[in-house]
Design brief:
The chain is an alpha+beta fold. The chain folds into two domains: 165 residues, Phosphorylase Kinase, domain 1, CATH 3.30.200; 229 residues, Transferase(Phosphotransferase) domain 1 (Transferase(Phosphotransferase), domain 1, Orthogonal Bundle). 30% of the residues lie in helices and 17% in strands. The chain contains twelve helices and twelve strands. The strands form two sheets. Strands 1, 2, 3, 4, 5, 6, 8 and 9 form an eight-stranded mixed sheet that branches. The longest helix has 19 residues. This is Protein kinase domain-containing protein. It comes from Solanum chilense.
């Protein structure tokens, strides 16, 4: 059935039914150099196989059915920016956002050069897509974030947007009104996704400071800036993304923020494996700082509430899934860490002891006096989890702590060892 186009859609101007902007303007985008691992010249669209990890959203399901259809008249999965005719060939379903309302794809971007003799180059990008008719409120939020949020910069530590545009297309069904956000492609996905592929589901201390140092630099230089401070609000392991450049053999770690946030875990890796504990995808809510916990306090968030979440993220990385069923469990863990001024060997065993289960069997294990983690790492977490936000350090102060040093090469090898 053909959709009725919404004449009051705020994202579609009256002239041509679409709009776009890049770097805060409506001018044509600057040329983007291709990565060495992107095909050049652009291959035939038919030669690129479609891949789908899971049916995440209605768009993903419709697109998956489209890609597997035996109908010879199947539409090509290409989105064309109506502003400048740049093309985005969707190749893989790699995530979702807005509670599954939107889909995230790996896409091959090709710049349109109608009057140039130079062959158009291509590169991989991440494309977030949402149906504006079916998700009006989420679309408005995404559009606002794209216009007021951070732009992507080559050497920044925050994943910013490269472009946002709306388009009417027939890819999924007739006359879909889609809002599209172009982001840099992060090849390895989020850190939570990476950990979900490893047997122990956690990161060793020697790698944690490599990750957290990059996060702190992003917070200090791009979010908690003195002249115009912003607040991240959702900082967690699922917002930390990793990219490996095949050309330079370098690894980069960046923090997603607002418009660039999405869930890179598949359904099979997601909600079910966390039961009966609280889902870490919502850890920024149930693990929020005391001053912002619960809905009525959300407006009180600030840079120091981000620092609290930074400490909770460190706990998630070093322990894996947190054994928390409710806020009471969460507060108990925080209080015990503060009281003993050191981290336990296992949070799960600590909770077993609290509940009186297998008390005699576990006593010698739980009550170990030997320090499992370095004193420098424990000091970082204790500082972040101070009750009064005034007493928590800033991102800049944390960067000057003894804990942070360089071990990037070993972390790179850890990431690459998990590739299939």
């Amino acid at each position: 059935m053909k959709k009725n186009q919404n004449p009051y859609n705020p994202y579609l101007p009256k002239e041509n039914g679409s709009t776009s902007f890049e770097n805060g303007s409506t001018s044509s985008p600057a040329s983007i150099d291709p990565p060495s691992n992107a095909p050049d010249p652009v291959p035939s669209f038919a030669s690129l196989p479609l891949q789908f990890d899971s049916n995440r959203s209605s768009l993903s399901m419709r697109f998956a059915r489209l890609s597997t259809s035996e109908n010879q008249q199947v539409r090509q999965p290409i989105i064309t920016d109506p502003h400048n005719q740049d093309q985005y060939l969707l190749t893989s379903d790699i995530g979702s956002f807005s509670h599954g309302s939107g889909a995230v794809f790996k896409a091959l971007y090709t710049e349109h050069r109608p009057d140039s003799e130079i062959t158009a180059h291509s590169r991989w990008v991440t494309l977030k897509i949402i149906d504006m008719n079916d998700n009006e409120s989420e679309s408005r939020d995404l559009w606002r974030q794209g216009k007021t949020g951070l732009l992507d910069t080559p050497y920044g530590k925050i994943i910013g947007s490269r472009k946002i545009f709306s388009v009417v297309t027939n890819i999924f069904s007739d006359n879909d009104e889609l809002l599209c956000v172009v982001l840099p492609y992060m090849s390895e996905g989020s850190l939570r996704y990476i950990l979900s592929t490893r047997p122990q589901k956690k990161l060793s201390e020697e790698f944690i400071f490599v990750v957290l140092k990059q996060v702190l630099i992003g917070l200090r230089d791009e979010i908690h800036v003195e002249f115009n401070p912003k607040v991240h609000k959702t900082l967690n392991a699922g917002d930390i993304f990793v990219h490996f450049d095949d050309a330079t053999q370098e690894i980069s770690i960046k923090l997603a923020y607002e418009v660039s946030v999405y869930d890179s875990e598949t359904q099979n890796q997601g909600n079910n494996r966390y039961a009966p504990f609280m889902n870490p995808k919502n850890i920024f809510r149930w693990g929020a700082a005391p001053e912002v916990y619960e809905k009525q306090n959300e407006g009180k968030s600030g840079p120091k509430s981000d620092i609290w979440l930074f400490g909770i993220t460190a706990l998630e990385l070093v322990y894996g899934d947190l054994p928390v069923r409710n806020r009471v469990d969460f507060n108990y863990i925080v209080d015990e860490i503060r009281k003993k001024k050191k981290l336990p060997n296992s949070l799960k065993k600590m909770m077993i002891k609290r509940d009186g289960r297998f008390k005699e069997v576990m006593r010698n294990v739980v009550n170990r006096k030997k320090r499992v983690f370095s004193e420098e790492f424990e000091e970082i977490i204790l500082a972040c989890l101070r009750e009064n936000p005034v007493n928590r350090p800033s991102a800049d102060q944390l960067l000057n702590a003894p804990f942070f040093c360089d071990s990037n090469d070993r972390f790179k090898q850890y990431v690459l060892n998990g590739r299939n």
